[in-house]
Every structure is written in structure tokens, then in C-alpha cells.
Amino acid sequence: MAKDSRANGTTxxxxxxxxxxxxxxxxxxxxxxxxxxxxxxxxxxxxxxFPNVAARGGVIRSxxxxxxxxxxxxxxxxxxxLSPQKLKQHVTNWRLHIxxxxxxxxxxxxxxxxxxxxxxxAGGLRGGIDxxxxxxxxxxxxxPTTIASNVVMTRNSxxxxxxxxxxxxxxxxxxxxxxxxxxxxxxxxxxxxxSVRPASPATLGPMYAxxxxxxxxxxxxxxxxxxxxxxxxxxxxxxxxxxFRLAKVCSLCMVxxxxxxxxxxxxxxxxxxxxxxxxxFNILMNLALYMVFTVVCYYxxxxxxxxxxxxxxxVADSKLGRHLPAVIRRALTMKKMPxxxxxxxxxxxxxxxQALGIPLADAMWGQHDNxxxxxxxxxxxxxxxxxxxxxxxxxxxxxxxxxxDKRTDCDDDSEHAEQRQVVGNxxxxxxxxGSKENEREVVNSLNAQRVHEKVAS
Length: 457
Known about the structure:
Blueprint: H1 2-33, H2 35-49, H3 51-54, H4 62-81, H5 84-91, H6 94-121, H7 131-142, H8 149-156, H9 161-186, H10 205-232, H11 234-243, H12 246-268, H13 270-273, H14 276-301, H15 305-314, H16 319-322, H17 326-332, H18 339-349, H19 354-364, H20 370-428, H21 432-456
């Protein structure tokens, strides 16, 4: 009896220690898989304690080394990774363009304008919310999708990065022309906003030149060079990608972008000049709005049947819709997109870029002092920073969502293979009509066993 009790005690201790080891391994595995979150945290701490290193004009001259160099490296590597055929395919994916650009330039500005009108009607301006925060939110609503982070996170999620790149290029080409008009039209006409109205549109010339230069040097040229290498030396390029793990380099560049963004925010000190109530309001609204925008993107790209059926009856399948050209009708038809494209839509449609937002605010409010411009730029900085952190956690969810279907498909394939093997073995021992009946009996029996196992589990 004593031996048995000692044996049981030893077994219990070993089982508990094995369980603890398994838990530690899972935690470590999760941390390693999502190291980018910890990288963002370290970058934020470095920016807080040493803001002069990675801010504009700082030690490493981040306005060139990171905002040009790191982003160019991301798109150069993506150019080498992407299949040219896939890029060509998405150029004419009109439904993808309509959803992403429509949400970015139409739906989001309208939703933020509604929110601003609610804040004004509720007396928010008298309750401690600074008017510059609301103006900054208008700027956020009008600017296009971010340049680099959504591409990297789409790939990390298992999504369609070619779709993300196409939308980045389209959005940032259209953005400088659309965003100023949206800002001029969406800033409320209330007297409280008279002191923060932008300058004449004639002052926007330098902004156009700056944005187009960055788009060309950091996105279009590196992407074209990477695609050229992929076309010319496909085998060698694939070897380089595998050997040097260049995909990880893109994620590291993302950490550098976060470092530069937070450094700029902490260096200006403008965030400390705003009332705490305005800062808290803006931070919480950014998180809530980003999640709302993501949900809108998801259901636009992956609508349930109860939503798509009545919409199609009114639009694509209406009398007018039936007479539209086939390309336009397909683009307007509401249906579920492939899951990898859904991920690209969610990460691109809800995102905004400070690469246009900062120079745009600087140009449109050029007649004001630097403090006023910094106050208007703070909502842009806060939104772009918060979206990076939030999107990184969404990549975990999206990756699980895509891999779940892959596991299901693998289980179905193995089940069908088992059925074929059993049927094949049974057919070898039978002939004629009896073999067919035997096959049906075996398949029915196997299916019944599967159902019983699933119910039991």
C-alpha cells in the first residue's frame, strides 16, 4: 500500500510538472509568434525616454532613414515576393477597389462627421474637448490608407498582400487630391471653428510635391525593382527570400516605423498641452472607431446572406442593374470574397496614413503657428499609432480564422481518402452487383461512425 501511494504521488507530481511545462511552452510559443507586439512596446519605451533619436531631425534622421529607407525596403521585399500574375489580377478587381476606397473616402468621413455633430450637440466643446481635436479627427477621416503597416500585417495574417499593395497604391495616389476637398467640406461651420479654419487651397502645392515624391521613392520604384528581379531571376530571388528570411525584415521595419512615430509625438510635447479630457476622449474614440471601421469592412467584404440578398435585389439584380455592363454589375454584386482578400480589406479599409496626414495638416494650416499645427496633427499621430497596436492583435484573430478552414479542409481530405481506401479494399474482395452494394454499406457505416464520434466529442 505504501509503495502504491508513493507511486501515485510520484505520478501526480510528474503529471503536474508536465502540465506546467506544456503551459510554459505554449506561452513562449505565443510570445515568439507574436514578437511584433513586444517589439512595438520596446519601440514605444525607447521613443518615450529618447525622443531625440528617431524624431524628425534627430540623431538618425528618421525622415529619410525610416520614412524613406525602411518603407522602401518593405516594398522592395514585397515586390520580390509577389507573383506578377496576382498583381495583374487585382488591378481589375473592381469590387475590391470600390469597397476599400469607398470605405476610406466616403463611409469613414461620414461616420466621423456624424460623431463630431453629436459631440457638438451634447456640449462637448464646453465640457473640455478641444476644438483642434475635432478638426484633427476630420483630417484623419479624409486621408488614405497607411503605406506599409497594412501590407506587412496582411501578409503576417495569411491574407492577400497583393490586394493590400494595390489598394495602398490607389489610395495614396487619389488621397492628395480627394483629402483636401473632404477636409474643407467636412469641417463644421460653427463659430467655434472659425479660429482653426485651413488656409486657401492655393497653398497646397508643396504638399502635393512632398507626398508624390515619397510615394514614388518609397513605394512605386522599390516595388517595380522587386518585381523586375522576380521576373528576371525567379529561382535566385526565392532562394534569397528563404535563406535570409527577408519577410522578417519587413516586420522589423514596422518596429522602426512605430519608433519614429512615437518619437515625433513625444518630442513635440504638444500632446501635453492638450487638456487631459481631450486626450482621453481622442484615444478612446480612436479605438472604438477603428473597431467599427473594421466591422464595416468585414461585412462589406464577407456579407451574410440575409444582408446580401436584399441589397442585390435593390442594386445588381434590379431592372436598372440588369442593363449595366457585366464588369460593373459584378463589382456591385454583394457576395462573400475569399478570406485572404477579406483580411486585406479589413486591414486596408480601416487604416489611415500619417505620411499624408502630417504634411497635409502642415500645408493647410500654414498660416497658423507651430503649436496650432501640432495640436491638429496629434489626432493623426494617435490614430495611426493605435491602429498599429490594434491591428497587430487582429492579425492573431485573422490568422486563426484562415488556418481554421485549412485544418477543416485537411480533415475532409483525409476523411475522403480513408473512405476511398476502405472502399477500394472492400471492392477487391467483391465483384459485380455485390461489390457496389458492399461499397455503399461500407461508406454508410463509416459516415455513421464519423457522426457518432463528432456528437460524442
